[in-house]
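Let us practice reading a record.
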Amino acid sequence: MNPVTGIVVYFIIWWTVLFAVLPWGVHVPDKVETGHAESAPDRPLLLKKAIATTLISAAIWIGFYFLHRSNLISFRAP
């Protein structure tokens, strides 16, 4: 796997994990301010979610890397 492929795979994993992490800890406020959506979270905690996404994605990518290097599963087209 060349570096560009590794970066692209990490980017895809990161975005997929982000969508799984975004709903964590979402609390809708009891009183909605004028002009805000009723479903908008009170505190989105985006920095914590970005850090969690990065760490989880790194662990998944490392697993993918070792799986790819071990040739247990071939990712090449026949």
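A brief commentary: The mean pLDDT is 90.
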